[in-house]
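ARCHIVE CARD
CATEGORY: sequence design from structure
SOURCE FIELD: tokenized fold
FIELD CONTENT:
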């Protein structure tokens, strides 16, 4: 478990590219046969990648969390981003996940394991976990049953569909919100004009990209922006004080996950594009 600490926006002004990437980017979370996780001190969110091969992998990290089991005081959302099918077993109950299917796992579940149906075509599970105070039912939601929001336009290069998995009108949770954004062909921008939400942080997993493709993820205060150059299957941690926006050199997909005190998806403070510097 890698640990990333919180950053004051005043301090970030002094960071070079290397330091920005160290603080806000997880570059290598998908490793075959392993569970690789990152613990962020922004609202204590955990993100991770899981690729089971010949054996199942159990969700655990007592050394970092100091709890009897991983979800003793946590909840989690899982999405399979691979064509390879997988199975998540939660306290003995199996949940098959195809590509882009989501599974919410409520607080209190003691034994969570992940396996691939075919180790030659393994599943790639992306997991996001947040602190929880109440148990909600474990529930699977395929992409086609998720709530779609159609936004943007070809004329602005940001035509996209936002699928909501875990949110106030979908799968119930304590504080975790999670979904996926699919850009239409030849559209490269997401969330433009950008926005802020002071009441929660957000993490972005960019994927479905070729090896040559890049996403330029814009962050920082509106009046003093920075950017990260992001490769396929990398995660950006976006603090509550940072704008959220990005553009790709090719088409891409991303999973967004939010944690914080406000559970309303539409709670956003929009930024006038003329204010950006």
């Amino acid at each position: 478990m890698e640990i990333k600490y919180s950053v004051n926006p005043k301090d970030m002004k002094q960071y070079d590219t290397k330091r920005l990437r160290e603080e806000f980017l997880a570059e290598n979370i998908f490793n075959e046969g392993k569970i690789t996780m990152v613990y962020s001190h922004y609202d204590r969110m955990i993100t991770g990648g899981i690729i089971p091969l010949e054996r199942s992998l159990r969700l655990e990290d007592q050394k970092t969390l100091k709890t009897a089991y991983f979800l003793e005081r946590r909840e989690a959302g899982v999405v399979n981003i691979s064509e390879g099918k997988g199975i998540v077993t939660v306290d003995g109950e199996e949940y098959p996940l195809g590509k882009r299917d989501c599974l919410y796992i409520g607080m209190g579940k003691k034994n969570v394991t992940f396996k691939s149906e075919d180790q030659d075509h393994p599943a790639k599970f992306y997991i996001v976990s947040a602190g929880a105070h109440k148990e909600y039912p474990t529930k699977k939601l395929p992409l086609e049953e998720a709530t779609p929001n159609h936004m943007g336009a070809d004329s602005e290069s940001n035509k996209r569909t936002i699928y909501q998995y875990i949110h106030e009108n979908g799968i119930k949770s304590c504080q975790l919100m999670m979904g996926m954004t699919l850009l239409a062909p030849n559209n490269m921008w997401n969330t433009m004009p950008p926005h802020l939400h002071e009441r929660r942080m957000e993490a972005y997993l960019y994927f479905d990209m070729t090896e040559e493709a890049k996403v330029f993820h814009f962050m920082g205060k509106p009046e003093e922006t920075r950017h990260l150059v992001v490769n396929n299957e990398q995660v950006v941690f976006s603090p509550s004080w940072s704008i959220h926006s990005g553009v790709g050199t090719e088409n891409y997909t991303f999973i967004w996950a939010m944690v914080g005190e406000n559970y309303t998806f539409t709670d956003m403070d929009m930024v006038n594009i003329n204010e950006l510097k």
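CARD ANNOTATION: The CA atoms of residues 83 and 99 lie 5 Å apart. The chain has one domain: 15-275.
SHELF: design records, drawer C
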